[in-house]
Specification:
Blueprint lengths: L6 H18 L3 H7 L4 H9 L18 H14 L1 H21 L2 H13 L3 E5 L15 E5 L2 E12 L6 E12 L5 E9 L5 E3 L13 E12 L3 E2 L5 H37 L1 E2 L2 E2 L4 H29 L4 H30 L9 H9 L9 H11 L6
Parallel strand pairs: 1-4
Antiparallel strand pairs: 2-3, 3-7, 4-5, 5-8, 6-7, 9-10
Helix pairs in contact: 1-4, 4-5, 4-7, 5-6, 5-7, 7-8, 7-9, 7-10, 8-9, 9-10, 9-11
Length: about 400
């Protein structure tokens, strides 16, 4: 199997790059400063077809492959990480669970607006005491006649409180298994449901443009047919969702590394000390060379994993590739932003330069959709090691 991107993928890359440079780059510094979530941009992304890349034609999608989605996320992330995560979460965490596990009626009800970029959806998994340990989920959903009654709280939920958020898919305890472990299911809660409370947005270190909120549920009632997939299969569903998401996060991280490389090459050719460009100094040139290695290696790992997904590779093989890609690229992105800030010197510490924004944005890549520690655990298990 070859993992080289096709000519069509590279042509699509150029299309997204031109869009990002024209529609995102001129405004992103101000949006970041104001913590502004640009609804108009989201709708333009929808017009370009970015939210429907992997969705079937019957719901307005392009019926394309997962690799194309990764290309789009990388190119948006190369200009701004917040915009990249908005697309990643909208598709991977919003659309994908409904597309993968929903009934035909659920798909017809919710997907068209999500695919068109006229609406967004979130995925409510993380809680104050339950992140990597999803078995510690406290949110409960009890069946009362023909309705689910949901009580609990979620945190760090992307695309959950914007003006165009239409729903959040929530993991909840719907019972207890014979062995005493919780039965987890996923339930769709439309925005505006009484008892579904969107708390004020977080004041975050980075990703200032991204829409992120804690959520509360107080006797929030939805019809029984809002159960997504089979009852009790919520744990398996979110694991599958996160495997895809890890590769998409890797693509976002590659965009971050590439941005650092591009910015440093330009700056090192223009900034002079002692009468010569700083790029002539080995101490600077070698660091920038390391960025090039990170970008190329990270891109190779990411698109290898994406190709395995598109080829329908065995779940075990894909899971291992996804964990490796996510671990390497996220940690490399953090290192890349540190290097870029150092290359820029004092200017790198100033918010008017984009390396400062990338520096702030990168750290969450090592945490979201599975921490680095979780990725190492998964990789070790894939190697056959008896890791708990």
């Amino acid at each position: 199997m070859t993992f080289a991107l096709s000519r069509e993928h590279e042509t699509f890359r150029q299309t997204v790059r031109e869009f990002a440079e024209a529609e995102v780059a001129p405004h992103v510094a101000q949006w970041d400063k104001e913590h502004h979530f640009p609804i108009d941009l989201v709708k333009k992304m929808g017009d370009l077809g970015l939210f429907g890349l992997t969705a079937p034609d019957e719901f307005g999608g392009a019926d394309g492959d997962f690799t194309s989605l990764c290309v789009a996320i990388e190119e948006l992330g190369r200009v701004d990480q917040s915009i990249g995560i908005t697309l990643e979460a909208a598709v991977g965490l919003g659309i994908n669970p409904i597309l993968t596990f929903g009934t035909q009626e659920q798909k017809e009800r919710w997907l068209p607006d999500l695919v068109a970029g006229q609406a967004l959806a979130g995925f409510g998994l993380t809680e104050p005491g339950a992140g990597s340990d999803a078995s510690a989920t406290k949110t409960k959903a009890e069946l009362d006649g023909d309705q689910w009654v949901v009580n609990g709280a979620k945190q760090f939920i992307t695309n959950s409180g914007s003006e165009i958020t239409s729903l959040v898919t929530v993991t909840a305890r719907t019972g207890t298994r014979e062995n005493g472990s919780p039965e987890l299911s996923t339930i769709v809660l439309p925005s505006g449901t009484p008892g579904f409370i969107v708390e004020p947005a977080y004041d975050k270190l980075g990703w200032h443009i991204s829409d992120t909120h804690p959520l509360s549920f107080v006797d929030a009632r939805v019809p029984a047919d809002h159960l997504l997939g089979e009852r009790g299969r919520g744990y398996a569903q979110f694991l599958a969702t996160l495997d895809d998401g890890r590769v998409a996060i890797a693509a976002l991280a590659v965009g971050c590394i590439q941005a650092c490389l591009d910015l440093c090459v330009q700056y090192a050719g223009e900034r002079t000390t002692f009468g010569v460009p700083i790029g002539t100094k080995q101490g600077v040139a070698f660091q920038i060379s390391d960025l090039a290695v990170m970008a190329q290696a990270g891109r190779a790992l990411t698109y290898q994993a994406a190709a395995l997904k598109d080829a329908g590779a065995p779940a075990k093989e894909f899971k291992q590739a996804a964990a490796i890609a996510k671990l390497y690229t996220s940690e490399s992105a953090v290192t890349a932003t540190r290097i870029a800030t150092q290359v820029f010197g004092g200017y790198g510490f100033m918010e008017e330069y984009p390396v400062a924004r990338f520096y702030r944005d990168a750290k969450i890549l090592e945490i979201g959709e599975g921490t680095s520690e979780v990725q190492r655990m998964l990789i070790a298990r894939g190697l056959g090691l008896p890791v708990e």
